[in-house]
Amino acid sequence: GDSVTQMEGPVTLSEEACLTINCTYTATGYPSLFWYVQYPGEGLQLLLKATKADDKGSNKGFEATYRKETTSFHLEKGSVQVSDSAVYFCALSVADSWGKFQFGAGTQVVVTP
Amino acid sequence: SAVISQKPSRDICQRGTSLTIQCQVDSQVTMMFWYRQQPGQSLTLIATANQGSEATYESGFVIDKFPISRPNLTFSTLTVSNMSPEDSSIYLCSVGGLAGAYEQYFGPGTRLTVT
């Protein structure tokens, strides 16, 4: 079945450091891919998305490129801030189940001043 | 996008009781979902709430334990029945299918503690 694997956390970084969170997927068909962010005590917010191969999603300085050849959708940010501390979830839309998602386990990111 | 609210935001309940969580959306939506997020874990889909018909439950979740209603295109409820401490989780509703797109938008969640 469809699945998402993302790197384990916590990832601890200093402010202004570069962030990469790896995400790989297994899917039948051609899923859409998403990154969500969950700040402490809140629900999930859509951070960015990509709907087809080679698409690049970007938002708030974060980027991720849909790589079909490596079945990956790694999240990157060039210079993190303390306010980026959160849990990040990679997700895909499940084939033949319109609207249903498969989520990765989540990666906690802690940015220190 | 859509603005989604949930009530209550948190609750502490005794084992054996039931709690009904409400999810309200500011616009009509095609798809509504209910998820459970256990402490420190990812999201697990409980069911798809279908307007005007019975919800579609995922493996491991049953209607007797998690009855769901969806009387219209902007509102749904999830009841957690006969609660035990293992039901302590965050329960999130989400909506999808806006403008035909796949992304889902999430409510703020209901943090449930069962003692």
Structure description:
- With 113 residues, chain A is mostly beta strands.
- Helices cover 0% and strands 50% of the residues of chain A.
- Chain A contains no helices and twelve strands.
- In chain A, the strands form three sheets. In chain A, strands 2, 5, 6, 10, 11 and 12 form a six-stranded mixed β-sheet that branches.
- The radius of gyration of chain A is 14 Å and the shape is globular.
- The termini of chain A are far apart.
- The model of chain A has no long low-confidence stretch (mean pLDDT 93).
- Helices cover 0% and strands 50% of the residues of chain B.
- Chain B contains no helices and eleven strands.
- The mean pLDDT of chain B is 93.
- Classes of the chains: A mainly beta (113), B mainly beta (115).
Computed Rg of chain B = 13 Å
Strand content of chain A: over 45%
Helicity range of the residues of chain B? under 10%
* Assembly state of the chains shown: heterodimer
The chain pair forming the largest interface, with residue counts per chain, is:
A-B, 20 and 22 residues
Span from first to last CA of chain B?
36 Å
Q: What is the makeup of the main sheet of chain B?
A: 7 strands, mixed
What class do helices, strands and sheet pairing of chain B give? mainly beta
